[in-house]
Fold:
Amino acid sequence: MLDIQIFRDNPASIRADFSKRGIDDALIDEVVRLDETWRQIRYEVDQLRKKKNSAARGIASAKKSGDEDEFGRIMDEVSNLGEMIENLESDARKMVEERDGIRMRIPNILHPDVPIGKDDQKNVEISRHGSERVFSFKPRTHNEIIEKNGWVDLARGAKVAGSRQYFLIGDLARLEMALQHYASDFLIERAYTLVQPPLMMNRAAYEGVTDLSDFETVMYGIEPDGYHLIATSEHPLTAMRMGEIIEPSELPIRMVGTSPCFRREVGAHGLSDRGIWRVHQFTKVEQIVICRPEDSWAMHEELLSNAKDLWDSLGLHYRVVDICTGDMGTVASRKYDLEAWLPGAGAFKEVVSCSNCTDYQANRLRMRYRTSKGNEAVHTLNSTAVATSRALVAIMEQYQTENGGVAIPEVLQPLMGGRTHLERI
Structure:
Protein backbone atom coordinates (compact mmCIF):
# COMPACT_ATOMS: atom_id res chain seq x y z
CA MET A 1 0.00 0.00 0.00
CA LEU A 2 1.31 3.43 -0.91
CA ASP A 3 1.95 5.90 1.90
CA ILE A 4 -0.97 8.33 2.21
CA GLN A 5 1.48 11.24 2.13
CA ILE A 6 2.18 10.54 -1.55
CA PHE A 7 -1.50 11.11 -2.35
CA ARG A 8 -1.34 14.41 -0.44
CA ASP A 9 1.99 15.74 -1.65
CA ASN A 10 2.56 14.22 -5.08
CA PRO A 11 -0.48 12.45 -6.61
CA ALA A 12 0.97 13.27 -10.05
CA SER A 13 3.68 10.62 -9.47
CA ILE A 14 0.98 7.97 -8.99
CA ARG A 15 -0.90 9.19 -12.09
CA ALA A 16 2.31 8.93 -14.12
CA ASP A 17 2.74 5.37 -12.91
CA PHE A 18 -0.85 4.48 -13.81
CA SER A 19 -0.17 5.87 -17.27
CA LYS A 20 2.83 3.55 -17.66
CA ARG A 21 0.68 0.60 -16.64
CA GLY A 22 -2.13 1.69 -18.97
CA ILE A 23 -4.79 1.76 -16.25
CA ASP A 24 -7.45 4.34 -15.36
CA ASP A 25 -6.54 6.75 -12.56
CA ALA A 26 -10.04 7.35 -11.17
CA LEU A 27 -9.12 5.49 -7.97
CA ILE A 28 -6.44 8.08 -7.24
CA ASP A 29 -9.02 10.88 -7.36
CA GLU A 30 -11.27 8.92 -5.03
CA VAL A 31 -8.51 8.41 -2.46
CA VAL A 32 -7.64 12.13 -2.58
CA ARG A 33 -11.32 13.11 -2.20
CA LEU A 34 -11.93 10.74 0.72
CA ASP A 35 -8.72 11.83 2.43
CA GLU A 36 -9.60 15.51 2.13
CA THR A 37 -13.08 14.84 3.51
CA TRP A 38 -11.64 12.77 6.35
CA ARG A 39 -9.18 15.52 7.26
CA GLN A 40 -11.98 18.11 7.22
CA ILE A 41 -14.04 15.95 9.57
CA ARG A 42 -11.06 15.50 11.88
CA TYR A 43 -10.60 19.29 11.91
CA GLU A 44 -14.27 19.78 12.83
CA VAL A 45 -13.94 17.20 15.61
CA ASP A 46 -10.86 19.00 16.96
CA GLN A 47 -12.73 22.33 16.96
CA LEU A 48 -15.69 20.80 18.79
CA ARG A 49 -13.38 19.24 21.36
CA LYS A 50 -11.73 22.61 21.96
CA LYS A 51 -15.17 24.14 22.36
CA LYS A 52 -16.18 21.40 24.77
CA ASN A 53 -12.99 21.83 26.83
CA SER A 54 -13.49 25.59 26.93
CA ALA A 55 -17.09 25.10 28.01
CA ALA A 56 -15.97 22.75 30.78
CA ARG A 57 -13.71 25.47 32.14
CA GLY A 58 -16.60 27.98 31.87
CA ILE A 59 -18.95 25.64 33.70
CA ALA A 60 -16.42 25.15 36.48
CA SER A 61 -15.97 28.92 36.77
CA ALA A 62 -19.75 29.56 36.81
CA LYS A 63 -20.21 26.92 39.49
CA LYS A 64 -17.47 28.42 41.58
CA SER A 65 -18.91 31.95 41.32
CA GLY A 66 -22.51 30.79 41.78
CA ASP A 67 -23.58 32.36 38.47
CA GLU A 68 -26.52 30.08 37.66
CA ASP A 69 -27.53 32.06 34.56
CA GLU A 70 -24.09 31.66 33.02
CA PHE A 71 -24.03 28.01 34.06
CA GLY A 72 -27.37 27.36 32.34
CA ARG A 73 -26.36 29.26 29.20
CA ILE A 74 -23.19 27.24 28.77
CA MET A 75 -24.95 23.95 29.44
CA ASP A 76 -27.55 24.74 26.78
CA GLU A 77 -24.80 25.66 24.35
CA VAL A 78 -22.82 22.42 24.77
CA SER A 79 -25.59 19.93 25.54
CA ASN A 80 -25.31 18.23 22.13
CA LEU A 81 -21.55 18.57 21.60
CA GLY A 82 -20.83 15.05 22.79
CA GLU A 83 -23.32 13.53 20.35
CA MET A 84 -22.00 15.69 17.49
CA ILE A 85 -18.43 14.58 18.20
CA GLU A 86 -19.47 10.93 18.37
CA ASN A 87 -21.35 11.14 15.04
CA LEU A 88 -18.49 12.90 13.31
CA GLU A 89 -15.96 10.37 14.61
CA SER A 90 -18.16 7.57 13.29
CA ASP A 91 -18.21 9.29 9.89
CA ALA A 92 -14.43 9.69 10.03
CA ARG A 93 -13.92 5.97 10.75
CA LYS A 94 -16.11 5.00 7.79
CA MET A 95 -14.31 7.52 5.58
CA VAL A 96 -10.81 6.28 6.42
CA GLU A 97 -11.88 2.64 6.03
CA GLU A 98 -13.21 3.39 2.55
CA ARG A 99 -10.12 5.43 1.68
CA ASP A 100 -7.69 2.75 2.81
CA GLY A 101 -9.73 -0.01 1.19
CA ILE A 102 -9.13 1.71 -2.15
CA ARG A 103 -5.45 2.34 -1.31
CA MET A 104 -5.02 -1.41 -0.80
CA ARG A 105 -5.99 -1.93 -4.46
CA ILE A 106 -3.66 0.70 -5.91
CA PRO A 107 -0.42 -0.90 -7.18
CA ASN A 108 3.09 -0.02 -6.11
CA ILE A 109 4.99 2.72 -7.92
CA LEU A 110 7.29 1.21 -10.51
CA HIS A 111 11.03 1.75 -10.65
CA PRO A 112 11.79 4.24 -13.47
CA ASP A 113 13.84 1.65 -15.37
CA VAL A 114 11.00 -0.89 -15.66
CA PRO A 115 10.47 -1.51 -19.41
CA ILE A 116 7.16 -0.24 -20.78
CA GLY A 117 5.05 -2.84 -22.55
CA LYS A 118 1.55 -4.24 -22.81
CA ASP A 119 2.28 -7.86 -21.84
CA ASP A 120 5.01 -10.47 -21.32
CA GLN A 121 6.00 -10.23 -24.98
CA LYS A 122 7.63 -6.89 -24.10
CA ASN A 123 9.76 -8.24 -21.25
CA VAL A 124 13.42 -7.44 -21.94
CA GLU A 125 16.10 -10.11 -22.00
CA ILE A 126 19.12 -8.95 -20.00
CA SER A 127 21.49 -11.90 -20.27
CA ARG A 128 21.88 -15.60 -21.03
CA HIS A 129 23.77 -18.06 -18.85
CA GLY A 130 25.15 -21.54 -19.29
CA SER A 131 25.54 -23.42 -22.53
CA GLU A 132 22.63 -24.71 -24.54
CA ARG A 133 23.05 -28.47 -24.80
CA VAL A 134 23.36 -29.93 -28.27
CA PHE A 135 21.59 -33.28 -28.63
CA SER A 136 22.29 -35.95 -31.24
CA PHE A 137 18.65 -36.99 -30.93
CA LYS A 138 15.30 -35.23 -30.72
CA PRO A 139 14.99 -34.11 -27.08
CA ARG A 140 11.97 -35.40 -25.17
CA THR A 141 9.62 -33.30 -23.07
CA HIS A 142 9.64 -33.89 -19.34
CA ASN A 143 6.22 -35.56 -19.69
CA GLU A 144 7.72 -38.16 -21.99
CA ILE A 145 10.70 -38.66 -19.68
CA ILE A 146 8.65 -39.19 -16.51
CA GLU A 147 6.30 -41.58 -18.33
CA LYS A 148 9.19 -43.61 -19.71
CA ASN A 149 10.91 -43.88 -16.30
CA GLY A 150 7.93 -44.20 -13.96
CA TRP A 151 9.02 -41.34 -11.69
CA VAL A 152 5.63 -39.59 -11.49
CA ASP A 153 2.14 -41.06 -11.13
CA LEU A 154 -0.28 -38.40 -12.36
CA ALA A 155 -3.26 -40.74 -12.79
CA ARG A 156 -3.24 -41.94 -9.19
CA GLY A 157 -2.53 -38.42 -7.97
CA ALA A 158 -5.70 -37.27 -9.76
CA LYS A 159 -7.62 -40.24 -8.34
CA VAL A 160 -6.64 -39.36 -4.79
CA ALA A 161 -6.56 -35.53 -4.91
CA GLY A 162 -7.82 -34.27 -8.28
CA SER A 163 -6.18 -32.90 -11.39
CA ARG A 164 -2.66 -31.41 -11.26
CA GLN A 165 -1.82 -33.56 -8.24
CA TYR A 166 0.80 -36.32 -8.41
CA PHE A 167 2.92 -38.88 -6.65
CA LEU A 168 6.68 -38.31 -6.99
CA ILE A 169 8.45 -41.66 -6.94
CA GLY A 170 11.91 -43.14 -6.55
CA ASP A 171 14.99 -41.25 -7.67
CA LEU A 172 13.05 -38.19 -8.83
CA ALA A 173 11.59 -37.84 -5.33
CA ARG A 174 15.09 -38.22 -3.93
CA LEU A 175 16.40 -35.58 -6.37
CA GLU A 176 13.64 -33.22 -5.26
CA MET A 177 14.78 -33.57 -1.64
CA ALA A 178 18.40 -33.07 -2.72
CA LEU A 179 17.42 -29.78 -4.39
CA GLN A 180 15.76 -28.58 -1.18
CA HIS A 181 18.83 -29.49 0.86
CA TYR A 182 21.32 -28.05 -1.62
CA ALA A 183 19.51 -24.72 -2.18
CA SER A 184 18.96 -24.18 1.55
CA ASP A 185 22.61 -24.85 2.38
CA PHE A 186 23.70 -22.65 -0.54
CA LEU A 187 21.93 -19.64 1.00
CA ILE A 188 22.76 -20.49 4.62
CA GLU A 189 26.42 -20.21 3.60
CA ARG A 190 25.61 -16.66 2.41
CA ALA A 191 24.31 -15.65 5.87
CA TYR A 192 20.62 -16.33 5.23
CA THR A 193 18.79 -17.79 8.24
CA LEU A 194 16.75 -20.92 7.53
CA VAL A 195 13.08 -20.58 8.52
CA GLN A 196 10.28 -23.10 8.10
CA PRO A 197 7.01 -21.13 8.17
CA PRO A 198 3.46 -22.12 9.07
CA LEU A 199 1.59 -23.46 6.05
CA MET A 200 -1.52 -21.37 6.64
CA MET A 201 -2.16 -17.69 7.33
CA ASN A 202 -5.05 -15.63 8.63
CA ARG A 203 -6.71 -13.06 6.39
CA ALA A 204 -5.19 -10.00 8.08
CA ALA A 205 -1.65 -11.29 7.54
CA TYR A 206 -2.39 -12.26 3.94
CA GLU A 207 -3.88 -8.85 3.16
CA GLY A 208 -0.59 -7.40 4.37
CA VAL A 209 1.53 -9.11 1.76
CA THR A 210 -0.64 -9.22 -1.35
CA ASP A 211 -3.72 -7.81 -3.03
CA LEU A 212 -6.30 -10.44 -2.11
CA SER A 213 -8.79 -9.07 -4.64
CA ASP A 214 -6.27 -10.10 -7.30
CA PHE A 215 -4.60 -13.09 -5.62
CA GLU A 216 -7.37 -14.83 -3.67
CA THR A 217 -8.49 -16.91 -6.66
CA VAL A 218 -5.00 -18.44 -6.71
CA MET A 219 -5.16 -19.65 -3.10
CA TYR A 220 -6.94 -22.39 -1.21
CA GLY A 221 -9.15 -21.24 1.66
CA ILE A 222 -9.70 -23.26 4.83
CA GLU A 223 -13.27 -22.93 6.03
CA PRO A 224 -14.91 -22.31 8.41
CA ASP A 225 -11.71 -21.15 10.12
CA GLY A 226 -10.96 -18.30 7.69
CA TYR A 227 -7.36 -19.29 6.95
CA HIS A 228 -5.54 -19.67 3.63
CA LEU A 229 -2.93 -22.25 2.68
CA ILE A 230 0.24 -20.41 1.70
CA ALA A 231 1.03 -19.95 -1.99
CA THR A 232 4.70 -19.27 -1.20
CA SER A 233 6.81 -19.00 1.96
CA GLU A 234 7.44 -15.38 0.95
CA HIS A 235 4.06 -14.50 2.42
CA PRO A 236 4.38 -15.80 6.01
CA LEU A 237 8.07 -14.83 6.23
CA THR A 238 7.35 -11.25 5.15
CA ALA A 239 4.33 -11.05 7.49
CA MET A 240 6.38 -12.50 10.36
CA ARG A 241 7.21 -9.00 11.68
CA MET A 242 3.79 -7.41 11.04
CA GLY A 243 2.86 -4.71 13.55
CA GLU A 244 6.43 -4.52 14.88
CA ILE A 245 9.03 -1.80 15.20
CA ILE A 246 12.36 -3.35 14.23
CA GLU A 247 15.61 -2.20 15.78
CA PRO A 248 18.02 -0.87 13.10
CA SER A 249 20.77 -3.15 14.41
CA GLU A 250 18.74 -6.14 13.13
CA LEU A 251 18.69 -4.91 9.54
CA PRO A 252 19.07 -6.28 6.96
CA ILE A 253 17.15 -9.43 7.90
CA ARG A 254 18.03 -12.22 5.47
CA MET A 255 15.95 -15.40 5.50
CA VAL A 256 15.72 -18.55 3.42
CA GLY A 257 12.36 -20.26 3.70
CA THR A 258 11.53 -23.77 2.59
CA SER A 259 7.96 -25.03 2.45
CA PRO A 260 5.27 -26.73 0.44
CA CYS A 261 3.22 -24.21 -1.57
CA PHE A 262 -0.41 -24.52 -2.62
CA ARG A 263 -2.00 -22.86 -5.67
CA ARG A 264 -5.28 -23.37 -7.47
CA GLU A 265 -3.72 -22.60 -10.88
CA VAL A 266 -7.10 -21.90 -12.46
CA GLY A 267 -7.48 -21.16 -16.17
CA ALA A 268 -6.31 -22.69 -19.41
CA HIS A 269 -2.67 -23.72 -19.84
CA GLY A 270 -0.60 -24.98 -22.76
CA LEU A 271 0.88 -28.41 -23.38
CA SER A 272 4.22 -27.43 -21.83
CA ASP A 273 2.43 -26.64 -18.55
CA ARG A 274 1.33 -30.26 -18.10
CA GLY A 275 3.08 -32.97 -16.10
CA ILE A 276 4.69 -31.44 -13.02
CA TRP A 277 5.32 -27.96 -14.42
CA ARG A 278 2.11 -26.24 -13.24
CA VAL A 279 0.67 -28.09 -10.26
CA HIS A 280 -1.43 -27.44 -7.17
CA GLN A 281 1.25 -28.42 -4.63
CA PHE A 282 5.00 -27.98 -4.92
CA THR A 283 8.00 -27.19 -2.76
CA LYS A 284 9.90 -23.94 -2.97
CA VAL A 285 13.06 -22.55 -1.41
CA GLU A 286 12.62 -18.78 -1.14
CA GLN A 287 14.87 -15.82 -0.32
CA ILE A 288 13.44 -12.98 1.81
CA VAL A 289 15.06 -9.68 2.82
CA ILE A 290 13.78 -6.93 5.13
CA CYS A 291 16.02 -3.86 5.04
CA ARG A 292 16.42 -0.08 5.21
CA PRO A 293 15.00 1.80 2.20
CA GLU A 294 18.42 3.05 1.13
CA ASP A 295 19.70 -0.54 0.90
CA SER A 296 16.86 -2.17 -1.01
CA TRP A 297 18.08 -1.79 -4.59
CA ALA A 298 21.47 -3.23 -3.70
CA MET A 299 19.66 -6.06 -1.92
CA HIS A 300 17.56 -6.66 -5.04
CA GLU A 301 20.75 -7.21 -7.02
CA GLU A 302 22.06 -9.49 -4.26
CA LEU A 303 18.96 -11.69 -4.46
CA LEU A 304 19.30 -11.88 -8.24
CA SER A 305 23.00 -12.71 -7.94
CA ASN A 306 22.23 -15.50 -5.45
CA ALA A 307 19.66 -17.00 -7.81
CA LYS A 308 22.00 -16.81 -10.80
CA ASP A 309 24.90 -18.33 -8.88
CA LEU A 310 22.67 -21.17 -7.68
CA TRP A 311 21.35 -21.97 -11.15
CA ASP A 312 24.85 -21.62 -12.63
CA SER A 313 26.08 -24.19 -10.12
CA LEU A 314 23.42 -26.63 -11.36
CA GLY A 315 24.89 -26.30 -14.85
CA LEU A 316 21.59 -25.19 -16.41
CA HIS A 317 21.01 -22.93 -19.41
CA TYR A 318 18.72 -19.99 -18.63
CA ARG A 319 18.15 -16.31 -19.31
CA VAL A 320 17.37 -13.27 -17.11
CA VAL A 321 14.52 -10.98 -18.16
CA ASP A 322 13.42 -7.56 -16.89
CA ILE A 323 9.63 -7.66 -16.43
CA CYS A 324 7.71 -4.91 -18.24
CA THR A 325 4.89 -2.69 -16.94
CA GLY A 326 2.09 -4.76 -18.45
CA ASP A 327 3.37 -8.00 -16.87
CA MET A 328 3.93 -6.60 -13.37
CA GLY A 329 1.61 -7.43 -10.52
CA THR A 330 0.34 -5.11 -7.82
CA VAL A 331 3.05 -5.46 -5.19
CA ALA A 332 6.49 -5.26 -6.82
CA SER A 333 8.24 -2.08 -7.89
CA ARG A 334 10.64 -4.02 -10.11
CA LYS A 335 10.95 -7.68 -10.95
CA TYR A 336 13.45 -9.93 -12.70
CA ASP A 337 12.66 -13.48 -13.84
CA LEU A 338 15.01 -16.34 -14.58
CA GLU A 339 13.69 -18.49 -17.41
CA ALA A 340 15.19 -21.94 -17.95
CA TRP A 341 15.51 -23.39 -21.44
CA LEU A 342 13.38 -26.50 -21.93
CA PRO A 343 14.71 -28.22 -25.07
CA GLY A 344 11.84 -30.70 -25.21
CA ALA A 345 9.28 -27.89 -25.12
CA GLY A 346 11.49 -25.64 -27.25
CA ALA A 347 10.92 -22.62 -25.01
CA PHE A 348 12.27 -20.58 -22.12
CA LYS A 349 9.98 -20.93 -19.07
CA GLU A 350 10.00 -19.02 -15.77
CA VAL A 351 11.73 -20.71 -12.85
CA VAL A 352 12.65 -17.76 -10.61
CA SER A 353 10.93 -14.48 -9.79
CA CYS A 354 12.96 -11.78 -7.99
CA SER A 355 11.09 -8.71 -6.69
CA ASN A 356 11.71 -5.50 -4.77
CA CYS A 357 8.42 -4.50 -3.12
CA THR A 358 9.91 -1.31 -1.56
CA ASP A 359 7.66 -0.15 1.34
CA TYR A 360 4.41 -1.44 -0.21
CA GLN A 361 4.04 -4.55 1.95
CA ALA A 362 5.52 -2.84 5.01
CA ASN A 363 2.83 -0.11 4.90
CA ARG A 364 0.11 -2.76 4.73
CA LEU A 365 1.72 -4.74 7.55
CA ARG A 366 2.49 -1.66 9.71
CA MET A 367 6.09 -2.90 9.83
CA ARG A 368 8.63 -0.19 10.65
CA TYR A 369 12.11 0.36 12.01
CA ARG A 370 13.39 2.87 14.51
CA THR A 371 15.27 5.95 13.25
CA SER A 372 16.47 9.22 14.80
CA LYS A 373 13.58 10.98 12.99
CA GLY A 374 10.92 8.52 14.15
CA ASN A 375 9.67 5.17 12.93
CA GLU A 376 9.82 4.57 9.17
CA ALA A 377 8.66 1.76 6.89
CA VAL A 378 11.19 -0.92 6.00
CA HIS A 379 11.55 -2.31 2.49
CA THR A 380 10.77 -5.95 1.70
CA LEU A 381 12.19 -8.12 -1.09
CA ASN A 382 11.78 -11.70 -2.20
CA SER A 383 13.19 -14.10 -4.76
CA THR A 384 12.76 -17.74 -5.60
CA ALA A 385 15.89 -19.77 -5.08
CA VAL A 386 14.39 -23.02 -6.39
CA ALA A 387 10.83 -24.13 -7.06
CA THR A 388 11.75 -27.78 -7.01
CA SER A 389 9.18 -29.17 -9.45
CA ARG A 390 10.24 -26.66 -12.11
CA ALA A 391 13.91 -27.26 -11.41
CA LEU A 392 13.27 -31.00 -11.86
CA VAL A 393 11.69 -30.29 -15.25
CA ALA A 394 14.69 -28.18 -16.32
CA ILE A 395 17.13 -30.87 -15.14
CA MET A 396 15.23 -33.69 -16.86
CA GLU A 397 15.02 -31.86 -20.18
CA GLN A 398 18.58 -30.46 -20.18
CA TYR A 399 20.32 -33.51 -18.68
CA GLN A 400 18.38 -36.17 -20.62
CA THR A 401 20.23 -38.95 -22.41
CA GLU A 402 19.46 -40.67 -25.69
CA ASN A 403 18.07 -43.77 -23.97
CA GLY A 404 15.55 -41.67 -22.03
CA GLY A 405 17.55 -41.49 -18.83
CA VAL A 406 18.67 -38.39 -16.91
CA ALA A 407 22.13 -37.45 -15.65
CA ILE A 408 22.40 -35.84 -12.21
CA PRO A 409 24.00 -32.37 -11.96
CA GLU A 410 27.45 -32.76 -10.42
CA VAL A 411 26.74 -30.62 -7.34
CA LEU A 412 23.76 -32.83 -6.44
CA GLN A 413 25.56 -36.15 -6.83
CA PRO A 414 26.89 -36.22 -3.23
CA LEU A 415 23.29 -35.90 -2.02
CA MET A 416 22.28 -38.81 -4.29
CA GLY A 417 24.73 -41.32 -2.86
CA GLY A 418 27.42 -40.39 -5.39
CA ARG A 419 25.39 -41.68 -8.33
CA THR A 420 25.64 -39.95 -11.70
CA HIS A 421 22.29 -40.91 -13.22
CA LEU A 422 18.71 -41.37 -12.01
CA GLU A 423 17.47 -44.96 -11.93
CA ARG A 424 14.27 -46.03 -13.63
CA ILE A 425 11.44 -47.49 -11.56
The chain has a mean pLDDT of 93. The domain at 4-103 is CATH 1.10.287.40 (Helix Hairpins). The longest strand covers residues 281-291. The longest helix spans residues 26-65.
